[in-house]
């Protein structure tokens, strides 16, 4: 009998749960009329740069009493899982950074999930496209329409652990030499992540005259120049063990922040976490390559608006604020990111900031990874990552490159 | 509830549709949220379906023919079968060993059994994370102990040769306790007289195991192997957390593959084709098991 | 003697393998990064820190997540036990046309991987208007083929004479189910409830997909935030794992006695 009562209790708990849920779900305050308009934003900015973005949001809210923006941070993986179907069905946030990979925006354009940004021009309440780096605007423009603004713009620099490195390398030859020498006593000379990471390997290839695709989107990973640019690094990883193989970005970062890695090529977001971890680190420009010039990776995350948002006007206003001079100046100062806007390039306070200036000085040398290459995300995961992972394990760069080249041309639709 | 308990019987009291009424909630839910969607996914697989695209062009069997030319798919299929066969075989042997060793009802056996059973309730994500770190040559205990012994630590999950066996090992680690508990229960259900008869006949330990224990355990064995195979064929979280299918697809399974196609590359139709292949594999393997164990539904 | 000591060597190795990873995880939640990297061969912390737990507490709306998890796993489990046992009662103890077909349909659903149906189910919930609602979160998961199977096996082991006696007393099917069969099925209830509660509690993808609204997130979803792309703070990750494991561990130790009994009387006939 006791059993019966327990079950009855269970069942009534269940029913109450359902009833409660039926009416407990009216928290969607984005309705009409009174009160401020609510905008939700999803981003994957969970790194050390997170407070910088929070600041933009809270400043915007303070300046716009009629709009209330709430930003939710989750892993990029999670956004990738939820956002496509959420946006298609008109659920989900008004605004989102769909991925840390700028090329991901193409998919959302294809499914008509993102709103064209029309609120462009001059003045504080418009997105000043003329003041944004042209490469970034181009990256987010499809068929002549702008679908996203850059949420940030980063270049990569060389982080080095001051306890292990006395003078940072200035040339590729020195970088290779130091990476090998510093690999000792359980430490790694230069940690190189190859998957789920900001791209490190392409920089090494660019520095020595290699590349991945040419301007007509055809693979060049198999050219003698590209193979020659990769071979020494593959040998260093395979034979000298300057880095563990198969590292993800997070694993490489953890090794550096634990003081187990002498050097790492990384973006400004890492600085805050390394500081918290208590590593005594220095920052230097990426060393110069064979031709005496330096190259680094430029990286940006897109910020886009749902095609089905109820508040397109306010959402665009928010993007305008995000990319505005005031917001970006403050953001650069607090996070060390180079300024997004060309009219901040010569700002004296930013030039005086040692962290910002390191990253900002490399903007002229920065290249985007596979910009507007068809199926860029798959070119990375299905061709480039396997190329590095195969070569660093078996040492056969030419063989791995031949396979990758075939795959890349398949994906980009190159018909040599 | 009591008033309900009084009214409902009137409706359910008669002969007629009582059976279907009792099954209605479950069948409605399973029908709406499992059976209909699996049919839906068959429909997707016959299209170049992309979530949200304006048009979903008909593709016929293209997705399926494409699968069989896809090296990643072949690898995923092979890995899935290897994981399933190896995990099931090892689990049955290890689990049976533990069950035989711990079948008696004393405090020690009971406590030890709880310890072995505990991993069953830990989430696969947590299990995957802990083992991933545990096996990491730079922070893990395994690497640390290897180094303390004066050897070079092994990068288990980044080695193309070792990653798959390691995943199988962790899968076994997670499920061994479940198999053991079920088999202990099965052992207890064997009437004592059977053993007495055998010992009167002078049968040895192994002989008793072969002629009495194993035959009597057959239905239990069917049950555990069925559960373990179905679970292994659908392995996802563990692999996703430990290796994401790497290195170089060496631990890619059918579900990580369909996840990658469906949720990373947004090729819903193609992912649906993979899922139908997986579904058919699961049904075939289950049917095969029912045959092997000569399952009799009539009892 | 030899077999006996061999037996304990075997069990001993198993015990070490089973326990050490768990101890290492719990200890890891109290370790600093430097300690973790510096003393890899050590099972226990050299210096203790609460940094991991503080991190979890500061960065998550912890109580809200806990509430959502308890509600989702608790209510769904209660419904599952009710629906599964009803369905199993019909399958095990009633005679009607189509019973075998129904049983096989149930078994087939056991073979469908969750990821396969994720997108179609999402679209259904969208058409029902159930996204971001508790009913959307709960109802699709409120029955389990495994539970039905287990209850069915259990119910089949109960002597038919019991029903007959009740029927002579004038009881209908529902009364027999509710008053006669269910009270006997305590161990099976415990088994199904424990397994379902565990699965639901640990489920990461389902709540993530159904609720785009982060006030409806569950604990595992919240904790997944810490496995981000940047520097991994291992102590926080371990602390998160320990926290989400604790409620399950408590349920496990309370219910495992029934659970074993449930397993041993079902699934084996």
Automatic annotation (TrEMBL), chain A:
Residues 1-26 form the signal peptide. Gene3D superfamilies: Periplasmic binding protein-like II. InterPro entries: SBP (IPR006059). Keywords: Signal, Transport. GO terms for biological process: maltodextrin transmembrane transport; maltose transport. GO terms for cellular component: ATP-binding cassette (ABC) transporter complex, substrate-binding subunit-containing. One of its GO terms (molecular function) is maltose binding. PROSITE patterns: PROKAR_LIPOPROTEIN. Belongs to the bacterial solute-binding protein 1 family. This is ABC transporter substrate-binding protein. It comes from Paractinoplanes tereljensis. The lineage of its organism: Bacteria, Bacillati, Actinomycetota, Actinomycetes, Micromonosporales.
UniProtKB/TrEMBL annotation, chain B:
Belongs to the binding-protein-dependent transport system permease family. The chain crosses the membrane at residues 20-39, 76-102, 114-134, 154-173, 220-242, 270-293. The keyword Transport applies. The lineage of its organism: Bacteria, Bacillati, Actinomycetota, Actinomycetes, Micromonosporales. PROSITE patterns: ABC_TM1. GO terms for cellular component: plasma membrane. One of its GO terms (biological process) is transmembrane transport. Keywords: Cell membrane, Membrane, Transmembrane, Transmembrane helix, Transport. Residues 77-289 form the ABC transmembrane type-1 domain. It comes from Paractinoplanes tereljensis. InterPro entries: ABC_transporter_permease, MetI-like, MetI-like_sf. It is found in: Cell membrane. The keyword Chloroplast does not apply. Its main location: membrane. SUPFAM superfamilies: MetI-like. It is a multi-pass membrane protein. Pfam families: BPD_transp_1. This is Sugar ABC transporter permease.
UniProtKB/TrEMBL annotation, chain C:
Residues 66-255 form the ABC transmembrane type-1 domain. One of its GO terms (biological process) is transmembrane transport. InterPro entries: MetI-like, MetI-like_sf. Keywords: ATP-binding, Cell membrane, Membrane, Nucleotide-binding, Transmembrane, Transmembrane helix, Transport. SUPFAM superfamilies: MetI-like (SSF161098). The lineage of its organism: Bacteria, Bacillati, Actinomycetota, Actinomycetes, Micromonosporales. It comes from Paractinoplanes tereljensis. PROSITE patterns: ABC_TM1 (PS50928). It is a multi-pass membrane protein. One of its GO terms (cellular component) is plasma membrane. Belongs to the binding-protein-dependent transport system permease family. It is found in: Cell membrane. GO terms for molecular function: ATP binding. CDD domains: TM_PBP2. Coiled coil: none annotated. This is Sugar ABC transporter ATP-binding protein. The chain crosses the membrane at residues 7-27, 65-89, 101-122, 134-155, 176-197, 235-255. The gene is ugpE_1.
């Amino acid at each position: 009998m006791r059993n019966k009562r327990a079950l009855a209790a269970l069942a009534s708990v269940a029913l109450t749960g359902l009833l409660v849920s039926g009416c407990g779900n009216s928290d969607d305050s984005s309705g009409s009329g009174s009160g401020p308009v609510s905008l939700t934003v999803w981003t994957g900015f969970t790194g050390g740069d997170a407070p910088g973005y929070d600041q933009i949001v809270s400043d915007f809210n303070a300046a716009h009493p009629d709009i209330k923006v709430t930003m939710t941070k989750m892993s990029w993986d999670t956004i990738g899982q939820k956002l496509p179907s959420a946006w298609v069905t008109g659920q989900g946030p008004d605004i989102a950074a769909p991925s840390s990979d700028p090329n991901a925006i193409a998919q959302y354009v294809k499914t008509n999930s993102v709103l064209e940004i029309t609120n462009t021009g001059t003045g504080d309440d418009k997105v000043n496209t003329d003041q944004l780096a042209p490469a970034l605007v181009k990256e987010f423009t499809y068929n002549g329409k702008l679908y996203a603004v850059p949420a940030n713009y980063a270049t990569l620099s060389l982080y080095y652990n001051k306890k292990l490195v006395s003078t940072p390398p200035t040339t590729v030859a020195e970088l290779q030499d130091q990476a090998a020498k510093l690999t000792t006593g359980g430490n790694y000379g230069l940690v190189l992540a190859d998957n789920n990471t900001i791209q490190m390997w392409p920089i090494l290839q660019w520095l020595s005259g290699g590349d991945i695709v040419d301007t007509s989107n055809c693979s060049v990973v198999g050219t003698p120049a590209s193979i020659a640019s990769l071979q020494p690094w593959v040998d260093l990883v395979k034979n000298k063990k300057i880095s563990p193989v198969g590292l993800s970005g997070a694993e490489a970062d953890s090794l550096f922040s634990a003081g187990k890695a002498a050097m790492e090529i990384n973006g400004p977001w890492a600085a805050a976490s390394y500081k918290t971890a208590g590593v005594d680190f220095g920052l230097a420009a990426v060393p110069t390559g064979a031709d005496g010039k330096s190259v680094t990776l430029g990286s940006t995350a897109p910020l886009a608006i749902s095609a089905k948002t109820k508040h397109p006007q306010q959402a665009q206003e928010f993007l305008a604020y995000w990319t505005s001079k005031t917001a970006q100046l403050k953001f650069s100062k607090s996070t060390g990111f180079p300024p997004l806007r060309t009219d901040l390039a010569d700002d004296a306070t930013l030039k005086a900031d040692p962290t910002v200036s390191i990253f900002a000085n490399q903007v002229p040398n920065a290249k985007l990874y596979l910009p507007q290459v068809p199926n860029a995300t798959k070119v990375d995961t299905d061709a480039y990552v396997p190329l590095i992972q195969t070569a660093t394990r078996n040492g056969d760069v030419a063989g791995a490159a031949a396979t990758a080249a075939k795959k890349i041309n398949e994906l980009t639709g190159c018909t040599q | 509830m009591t008033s309900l308990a009084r009214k409902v019987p009137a409706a359910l009291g008669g002969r007629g549709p009582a059976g279907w009424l009792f099954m209605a909630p479950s069948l409605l839910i399973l029908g709406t949220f499992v059976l209909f969607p699996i049919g839906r996914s068959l429909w997707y697989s016959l299209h170049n379906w992309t979530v949200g695209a304006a048009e979903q062009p008909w593709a016929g069997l293209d997705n399926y023919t494409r699968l069989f030319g896809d090296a990643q798919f072949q690898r995923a299929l092979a890995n899935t079968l290897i994981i399933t066969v190896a995990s099931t075989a090892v689990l049955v042997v290890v689990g049976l060993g533990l069950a035989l060793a711990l079948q008696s009802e004393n405090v020690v056996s009971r406590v030890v059994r709880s310890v072995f059973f505990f991993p069953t309730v830990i989430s696969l994500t947590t299990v995957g994370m802990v083992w991933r770190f545990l096996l990491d040559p730079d922070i893990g205990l395994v690497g640390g102990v290897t180094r303390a012994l004066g050897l070079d630590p092994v990068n288990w999950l980044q080695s193309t040769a070792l990653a798959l066996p390691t995943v199988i090992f962790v899968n076994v680690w997670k499920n061994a306790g479940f198999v053991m508990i079920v088999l202990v229960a099965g052992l207890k259900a064997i009437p004592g007289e059977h053993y007495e008869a055998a010992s009167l006949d002078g049968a040895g330990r192994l002989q008793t195991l072969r002629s009495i224990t194993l035959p009597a355990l057959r239905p239990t064995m069917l049950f555990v192997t069925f559960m373990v195979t179905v679970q292994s064929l659908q392995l996802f979280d563990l692999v996703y957390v430990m290796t994401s299918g790497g290195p170089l697809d060496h631990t890619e399974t059918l579900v990580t593959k369909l996840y990658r196609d469906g949720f990373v590359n947004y090729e819903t139709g193609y992912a649906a084709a993979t899922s139908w292949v997986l579904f058919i594999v699961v049904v075939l393997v289950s049917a095969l098991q029912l045959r092997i164990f000569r399952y009799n539904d009539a009892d | 003697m030899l077999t006996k000591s061999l037996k304990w060597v075997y069990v001993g190795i198993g015990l070490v393998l089973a326990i050490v990873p768990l101890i290492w995880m719990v200890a890891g939640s109290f370790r600093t990064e430097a300690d973790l990297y510096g003393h890899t061969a050590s099972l226990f912390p050299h210096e203790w820190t609460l940094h991991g737990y503080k991190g979890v507490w500061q960065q998550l709306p912890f109580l809200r997540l806990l509430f959502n998890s308890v509600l989702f796993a608790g209510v769904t489990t209660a419904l599952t036990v009710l629906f599964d046992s009803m369905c199993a009662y019909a399958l095990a103890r009633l005679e009607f046309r189509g019973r075998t077909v129904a049983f096989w349909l149930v078994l087939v659903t056991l073979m469908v991987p969750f990821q396969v149906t994720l997108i179609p189910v999402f679209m259904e919930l969208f058409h029902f208007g159930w996204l971001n609602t508790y009913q959307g979160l709960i109802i699709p998961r409120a029955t389990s083929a495994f539970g039905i199977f287990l209850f069915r096996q259990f119910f089949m082991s109960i002597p038919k004479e019991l029903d007959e006696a009740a029927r002579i007393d004038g009881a209908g099917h529902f009364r027999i189910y509710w008053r006669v069969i269910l009270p006997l099925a305590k161990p099976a209830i415990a088994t199904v409830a424990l397994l379902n509660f565990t699965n639901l509690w640990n489920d990461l993808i389902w709540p993530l997909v159904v609720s785009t609204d982060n006030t409806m997130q569950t604990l595992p979803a919240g904790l997944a935030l810490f496995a981000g792309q940047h520097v991994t703070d291992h102590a926080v990750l371990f602390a998160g794992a320990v926290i989400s494991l604790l409620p399950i561990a408590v349920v496990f130790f309370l219910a495992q006695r029934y659970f074993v009994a449930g397993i041993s009387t079902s699934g084996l006939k």
